[in-house]
Amino acid sequence: MPKIAVDAMGGDRAPEVVVEGAMLATEELGVEVVLVGQREVVEQELTRHGAHRLEIVSASQIVEMHESPSSALRKKDSSMKVAFDMMKRGEIQAVVSAGNSGAMMATGMFVVGKLSQVARPAILIVVPSVAKGTVIIDAGANVDCKPHHLGQFGLMGSIYAERVLGIPNPRVGVLSNGEEEGKGNELTRVASELISGLPLNYVGYVEGRDIFNGRVDVVVCDGFTGNVALKTMEGAAGFAGEVLREAFQKNLASRLGYLMSRNSLREAYCRLDYAEYGGAPLIGLDGVAIIAHGGSDSRAIKNAIRAGRDAVEQDVNRHITEILSGPEAGMGEETGGFPGKIWQRIKSKMLGDKPEREGGEGGGEE
Fold this sequence. Notes:
This protein has about 375 residues and is of the alpha/beta class. Helix content is about 45%, strand content about 15%. It has 13 helices and eleven strands. An eleven-stranded mixed beta sheet has the order 3-2-1-4-11-10-5-6-9-7-8, sandwiched between helices. Helix 1 crosses helix 11 and helix 4 runs parallel beside helix 5 (about 100-110). The longest helix is centred in the middle third of the chain and has 26 residues, at about 225-250. The protein starts with a strand and ends in a 15-residue tail after the last helix.
């Protein structure tokens, strides 16, 4: 049974909804949950819910939502850091927090570090689509990226989609401003060339609309673009909800229409609700860490814990390590985890260099 540490003090509505979500997880998901935070406050919430069976680990400090990552790192006894310390010691298998995402990434990197084969960990999110859901990676961890970072994002996103979402041979695309090869910028053009040579089901450039229409399973982008896309989707969903609410409240006929269709509308809302997808894995860390939405309710916390459980049970990090260490994506300091021949081909296009002969031993400087 996976044992998961939950930051009881993280999020806009902590600790109330965090404790409630942790209780739901222990009842429904077959996991063991440890609540990390200020003991008296957490105990009060457990007592209010009539629950006393959850383990509590004390942490005297709280990382506030507005704090910078550097400020968070100076808090040696924060609930976030104590949870990661537990994972480093092997006491738990995953950390879940609805707290400050920048602090979560910084603390995870400081305490447990990244997988040795990974150049940069990334935030992975799953958004609703006409299929099983679409993975977007990176959704905000790395605003400035190099092509080989996007290549690793594609590999890690594909592994997650296959192992956790159950999508066989996931289709991978690079997010761009058009499908044609001539579109995009230098980053997307070089990344597309690189990813096309990796052991992935690469479909080429994809546009924002393809996130939802089922054409692609994994969308690869830098963290700046991914975060803008994510926030735009959240805003569009909120706007659509307001428009529908106003329409159904307009007159008696519209209210009756709502009553007749509310079950279908609830099903549609559940499919679009971020709470159903739980949290965003910090994929590439040397451990499992899940960021829940800051405004999470108890159901979202429960599903974030589910995301942590699934990543642990599917052994996602082991699969990432095997793929990035294998002959099809051999590690190298310069290549960032990609074969020398592919990297040489990319460099020849970027710099006009002549590629080295394939018969050369060791791939030259790679």
